[in-house]
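Students often ask why we bother encoding 3D structure as a string. The short answer is that it lets us treat folding as translation between two languages. Here is a chain of 379 residues written in the first language.
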Amino acid sequence: MGEVSGDTLGVQLMRSFREQGIDAEFEGIGGPQMIAEGFNSFYPMETLSVMGIVEVLKDIKKLFAVRDGLVQRWREHPVDVFVGIDAPDFNLRLSKSLKEKNLPIRTVQYVSPSVWAWRQGRVKGIKATIDLVLCLFPFEKNFYEQHSVRAAFVGHPLAKLLPLNNSLVEAKQALGLNPEKTYIALLPGSRKGEVERLLPMLLGSAEILLKKYPDVEYLIPAISDVRKKQIQDGIQSIAPQYAQKLHVLENQDQESKIGRQVMNASDIVALASGTATLEAMLLHRPMVSFYKLNTLTYIIAKLLVKIQYYSLPNIIAGKKVIEELIQKDANPERLAHEIEKLMNNETAKIQMMQHFSMHKQLISGNTEDPVQAIMTLIQ
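And here it is in the second language, the structure alphabet:
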């Protein structure tokens, strides 16, 4: 588990165990929310915050050392079950090591890797090393059943947590914002490397739009003091003349919800493609997504990807619901153009209606309880 979304899933799982009266202890790698809930974390969450093929190679020795450290810990002090949350490249290797060492530990992967999208051959490794996959979306369970892998469709917790009726005015007031003003959320991601790569493009698009729409203001969430300083330094370096229009909002508690709060309080959201696009969809906010990888990583990934779309709303819908700007298309001019299109109320309204419809779809399916699925596996 290497990012805020995984930390959120983890803490909700921990709470669900306790709400059901199950006496359980939790250890491994966790984020601030999980730690505040009593999780014993042996390594910082950011240890796993590496994306991309080339980027992972730079940290491979460190990642192997963490994996081996956990295997050794659980060899000496066995646990009943290992639940890998997201971070599939790391977690699947860790599960494989546990199986190879013949440790009596059941293995669960919570959040399916995108094997249905690319590198489908990985499903053979998953079948050999994972005892249960907890799927967030129904089409994932169908895929695993076709390959004789035990899977449970547990749904995405946020789909049930976030209300179908969601007031933009109230969300702005909750952050102390002027409900009469227009705000655009800029989300470059939560990792250091993502911010380095994507913040210049976001600030460039804001500069373009501020020249045409000087009254619009921009909100950028920061999950920590370190990330806040990185973003503020970026603003001073790239767009100091607009600093008063670019508001960096930092997490104020252990819940790590600032990204969601910023998206919820914004009229339009521009964000890096990933789990956050699902959150924006469930908040029913009009959005445009983007992503830019290391060039070599992108070339390799392009050869392996089997799907037409990259962002979760489009994948769930099976069609283009939101605009996604990838690699060379992810530039300030194009992003500013797509944001400007969403300033049209009719265009934004159509997208928001589609978000609402998909939200209803995700809470209407027959989902299983992840805690009970794990307990059935153990027993």
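Translate back mentally: The longest strand covers residues 217-222. Keep this in mind for the problem set.
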